[in-house]
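User: Predict the complex with zinc ion.
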Amino acid sequence: MGIFTGLTAQGAFTAKPYFESLNRLSPHPPGSENHKKVCEYIQKTLISLGWEVQTHSFSYISPYDGPQEGTNIIGLLRGTQESTVAFGSHWDTRPVADQDPDRKKRREPVFGANDGNSSTAALLSLAEMLAGSGPLDHTVYLFFFDAEDSGSSSSSYCIGSKVFVEEWDISTVRFGVLVDIIGSKSLSLPYEGYSVRAAPNLSENIWDYAAKEKRIPFFRKNTGPHVIDDHLPFLERGIPFVCLIDFSYPWWHTTEDTPDKCSLMNIDMIVSLLFDIAVTPSKFYPSF
Ligand SMILES: [Zn+2]
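Assistant: Here is the predicted structure with zinc ion placed in the model:
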């Protein structure tokens, strides 16, 4: 990959240790022992990097596993100004591989290397980069949402983020970027349909910057599918929240969503982009 130059300024940083730790604790669907361990791991990691951590607990009924307790984890890097840019990922993995081509495997859990771990590792790597980059005037939030991926119909996905926007004060969030399924070796990122409709300028600014300034090869300026994901509760409240998601991933919701399908270089490129958005938000959203 000779064309990508965007990591040179932050070349020492990689999501590798976070991705590997999350994979060691996978699958981690809600209710599992690994789910508890990952919840602790994310909090401990953020605290060790100097971030303030808050948690937001909620109860819900999973269509697959019955009554569950969920935990959204919030990392805060407070600036002198309240204006906040937010980044989001879901940290849970899906309890059922219902898209597996082998019918016998459809009740097994999804490992979630790409769907869950790639984006969660990206946010932890972003936390490390921001911790080492000096103080910012504005505030940065990292949202790790639980219970995104236990849906059986459109209304039972994204439980954690839905409850979160109702119960947590998000009034200072000017805009946000959600990442999900961003680790594929053959990553391809068209505009996500809801994002580009609700936040066309922010979407275009991110895509243009990624392609032209960062020379990241997998941003495509066509509109891909409309994806129900954790950015929708924010869009419904009028907060621009753009979703980066590769919905062409062939192993989505199958037992084959494993680390060998993923590329750390691609995850690191996304982190490098997120870092620039975190540090210079007004470049992407001028009214920040
Ligand atoms: Zn999923």
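The beta strands are 52-62, 66-77, 84-90, 139-145, 173-180, 189-191, 219-223, 241-245.
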